[in-house]
Amino acid sequence: MLQDFKNIRLFDAVDAEYILSPENKGTPASLHSPALDVFTDFMDVKPVTVSESMPIAEALEYMKSQHVRLLFVLDNKDAFAGIITAADAAGRKVMAFMQKNQVSRDQVQVRHIMLSKFNIKTLTYAQLCDTRVGDVMLTMKDSGDQHVVVIDESTAGVIRVRGIISSSDISRRLKISFDIMYEAKSFAEIENVLSENGGL
C-alpha cells in the first residue's frame, strides 16, 4: 500500500520571518479599494451560528469563545432567522424583555432579543462587486449599523446569506479607530484621518 506514495522533501523553518494571514494579502485597504477587500465571504469562511432557542447567556459566552461580536441565528428548521450582537446580548434589550415579561435572565432566549431577518437591511453580492470601501463606510455611517449582511441568489433562484461586512473589519483594514467611523461629524473627517495615515 505505502509503495504507492513517496516521501516529500522537508525544509527548515529557520528562514521564515512572517506568518501570512488573509489581511496581509495584497495592498492595505483604502477608501477607494473594492468593498470585497473588507467582505467576509461565507463561500470561504464558515459563519458562526446559534439556535434561536439558545439561552441568551449561553449565546454571549459562545460569542466570547468564538471571538466574534455577532452570531447568525437559525430557526428550528435550520433556516436563517436573524442576527444577534454582543451589544444586544449583554445590554438593555435583555433587561427590557425580562421586565416586560416578568422572567429571569435564564429564561431569555436568543429569539427574544435577536434582530429578525424581517428587520435587516442587506446589500446584494452583485452590488458589492461594484462598490468601494468608502461607499460601504458612508452607508454604514448614515444607517448607524455596525454590520451589513450580504445576500446572493443561487442558480436555482434561492436567496442566501452570502457573507457580512463589519465596521470593526473595516477599521482594522484601514488602520483607523473604530470610534472615528461613528463619531466623525462628517465623512470628510474620516478622509482627513485616513490621509494622515496614508490610507486614502
UniProtKB/TrEMBL annotation:
InterPro entries listed in its UniProt record: CBS_dom (IPR000644), CBS_dom_sf (IPR046342), Diverse_CBS-Domain (IPR051257)
Family matches, as SUPFAM superfamilies: CBS-domain pair
Keyword Nucleus: no
Coiled coil (UniProt feature): none
Keywords from the UniProt entry: CBS domain
Domain CBS per the UniProt entry, residue ranges: 43-103, 114-180
PROSITE patterns: CBS (PS51371)
PANTHER family noted in UniProt: CBS DOMAIN-CONTAINING PROTEIN, CBS DOMAIN-CONTAINING PROTEIN CBSX3, MITOCHONDRIAL
Name of this protein: CBS domain-containing protein
Native source species: Neptuniibacter pectenicola
